[in-house]
Amino acid sequence: MTTALRTDRYELTMIEAALASGRADRRCRFEVFTRRLPAGRRFGVVAGTGRLMDALADFRFDAATVEWLAREGVVNTATLDRLHDSAFSGSIEGYAEGELFFPNSPVLSVTGTFAEAVALETLALSTLNHDSAIASAAARMVAAADGSPLSEMGSRRTHEEAAIAAARAAHIAGFAATSNLAAGERWGVPTMGTAAHAFTLLHDSEEEAFRAQVAALGPGTTLLVDTYDVERGVETAVRVAGTELGAVRLDSGDLPQLVRQVREQLDSLGAVNTRITVTNDLDEYTIAALRGAPVDAFGVGTALVTGSGAPTAGFVYKLVAVEDAEAGGWRPVAKASAGKVSRGAAKRGRRLIGADGVARAELVIVDETRDGVPDAPVDRDDLREAGASIRDLTISYATDGDLDARYRGHDGVRHARAHHAAAIAELPAEGLRLGAGEPALPTVYQ
Amino acid sequence: MTTALRTDRYELTMIEAALASGRADRRCRFEVFTRRLPAGRRFGVVAGTGRLMDALADFRFDAATVEWLAREGVVNTATLDRLHDSAFSGSIEGYAEGELFFPNSPVLSVTGTFAEAVALETLALSTLNHDSAIASAAARMVAAADGSPLSEMGSRRTHEEAAIAAARAAHIAGFAATSNLAAGERWGVPTMGTAAHAFTLLHDSEEEAFRAQVAALGPGTTLLVDTYDVERGVETAVRVAGTELGAVRLDSGDLPQLVRQVREQLDSLGAVNTRITVTNDLDEYTIAALRGAPVDAFGVGTALVTGSGAPTAGFVYKLVAVEDAEAGGWRPVAKASAGKVSRGAAKRGRRLIGADGVARAELVIVDETRDGVPDAPVDRDDLREAGASIRDLTISYATDGDLDARYRGHDGVRHARAHHAAAIAELPAEGLRLGAGEPALPTVYQ
């Protein structure tokens, strides 16, 4: 199925008008960045790039699409002729999926004709804004869980396709597993889950339900013990499954206190290896509040899939440079009126890493070279530090229309998850604090 | 493409365990409702039902799906045999799409075997939670705009498929149009859009850009006048397009003051019929703040597609009754432990309408009849009012596996939009206030 109509109408009317003015083939560079992080957030996590590559591979104005656009009168015949079966011939570079970002990090750039580059605005932003918002929230939850495994269980609280992308983004940011089967099938994310309250209510008693579940799934399963009374539920669970019961799950109640009571009860019943999983409307703050409690695993739903208060990453897609054939090079461009001011010119990202392995700054390399791409950083004395190193953040995703397949599919997810783990290990410790604060790294233009 | 894997893994493990315990074919009734509205909200709008019917028609465990589940070891062979190509044979009823809802309104119910009904939990909740969150926010924006047309322009700020559903939900709740072309193609929502800042920056001057756009799209187009300097932009726009210029768009700045200045300037230039469209990070509050200003149309993005602070509707899918073959009827069931308490038994909704045509109460009819479906309200004296009437809110979507096609496709959207307009016209005036408050109608069990 083509993804070509996942596009705002004005992208196509702009192409129509640019064809008429002779500017449609002018080479342009668009960049994706955010002017600021959500209030109080210290870093963001890039996600969605692999999905975007898949969508780009399927971005084609096929005959049926062109026919619909003609019937609706969206653009004229000349524009439809131009769009029909045209393929992207430009280049894309940007941050690796899983990488951290800060205000004005040049997360993605698209260089090509105006017509082909502007057409990708909506698709690129939809994908990156959604997935990065989820990954950014997920990374904070992972930090709050302090090593305990997290599962994503929010499919029911977001759009059914967004749910699959959310499970993928959370896994990249460190979640161990998801409840969503499609995320397992499509992206290779491990899936988990055993039973809901409905299963207990289906049976004529909690004991009948537990016996049924243990008979089918074995004593290593997780029994949900809060349908009626938690203390009786735990007692019944251990009586039915034995002391080798895998886990009990708590989905309601005052968790810090309840978890301690359940741990004591399990231990007193001899179920000392039985784990406790909690899933009661958790977010990064309630996870952190359970740090001292004997919780073995967390399941997170609503807060994760809605970005924990920041459901979109705030990325914009801005024209930053146009080719100037007469002057023989590129010219930076930017909106100049009140508010929403952008910085023109092509940019690339580098991270300054101290001798101790901890990141010091987000360097945005701006160089208005003839080919529109910055190629050399200008060193700044105030950033010099013995033993410091530079990590290039900008990689190539497509060159002259050839998409790099490495970042797609299951492999892309594995790669992104590993990349994220390495990038977050470089973050200064205060960057992982949940309290509101400034970005963990300053963005420095060079 | 099948939608069967848009399902949480535990739905399938519950089916496996229920097959083993002999309870998988027990007839069950699940209901979708929310315990509360988002903080301060006075009503919600049901949306997504038509999309859910489409997804149900494609919900099938086909050979490829079963093979993947087997390979992953999600459930055993007996369960896979049961799922393979099984078709939903149950019944679905619920509120019409576009209808208003309140705490505990029985928005949707699914009656069938445990196995077939529990399998739909995730898909039903994903669809209804997302679309209803967007429609609920959209309805507040429509009220705030006080008759001025609104366009949905938020595709870039949400998942690319969620964007299409959001455009559909907003249209049902009264938005006139969307920027999203796929929403036009798939759901018949009118599409709109002309140009972005990139189009101006592509050209060597604002005047060159405006001339190109007017040449291609005619003087009736909308010119974006805030790329450099608004006053000069408006002057150039009218000089280029003439006084028949369709509209100018403002996407930044201090809107209430700016809009008045632009209106005066347009009038002084003779462009008295040129409309003003504003699109600067609007939500229901900033729209309301522009009520006195000469704004002709609003474009809303981020706030709409993220539910304006409430990105999910809070619907849950709960088992409320099970068939009790021995007792020869149905038995209400409900979770009983601390927090998240539900009310068992089958329910239907009715709205009490006063003689003046204004709604008075949300009636939830609870009747534990032998077939699991309430059939007669119990009148309450305190709700008696001369000339009052009752409107049934619960309609049939599927009977014994037959899905009613009337609520699907473009027709379904048109029907839902009309239904919403009629339902909102019944709401007490204070229900449309933006300030935080109690639900506009009390929910009364009968």
UniProtKB/TrEMBL annotation, chains A, B:
Superkingdom of origin organism: Bacteria
Known function: Catalyzes the first step in the biosynthesis of NAD from nicotinic acid, the ATP-dependent synthesis of beta-nicotinate D-ribonucleotide from nicotinate and 5-phospho-D-ribose 1-phosphate.
EC annotation from Swiss-Prot or TrEMBL: 6.3.4.21
Keywords of the record: Glycosyltransferase, Ligase, Phosphoprotein, Pyridine nucleotide biosynthesis, Transferase
InterPro entries: Aldolase_TIM, NAPRTase_N, Nic_PRibTrfase-Fam, Nic_PRibTrfase_pncB, Nicotinate_pribotase-like_C, Quinolinate_PRibosylTrfase_C
Record Gene3D superfamilies: Aldolase class I, nicotinate phosphoribosyltransferase
All residue ranges annotated as the Nicotinate phosphoribosyltransferase N-terminal domain in the record: 5-129
MF GO annotations: nicotinate phosphoribosyltransferase activity; nicotinate-nucleotide diphosphorylase (carboxylating) activity
Similarity remark: Belongs to the NAPRTase family.
Post-translational modification (record): Transiently phosphorylated on a His residue during the reaction cycle. Phosphorylation strongly increases the affinity for substrates and increases the rate of nicotinate D-ribonucleotide production. Dephosphorylation regenerates the low-affinity form of the enzyme, leading to product release.
Pathway assignment: Cofactor biosynthesis; NAD(+) biosynthesis; nicotinate D-ribonucleotide from nicotinate: step 1/1
Pfam family name, one: NAPRTase_N
First-tier enzyme category under EC: ligase
A single BP term in Gene Ontology: NAD+ biosynthetic process via the salvage pathway
Entry-linked NCBIfam families: NAPRTase_put, PRK09243.1-5
Gene Ontology terms: cellular component: cytosol
Catalytic activity entry: 5-phospho-alpha-D-ribose 1-diphosphate + nicotinate + ATP + H2O = nicotinate beta-D-ribonucleotide + ADP + phosphate + diphosphate
Record's protein name: Nicotinate phosphoribosyltransferase
Domain Quinolinate phosphoribosyl transferase C-terminal: 134-303
Organism: Microcella alkaliphila
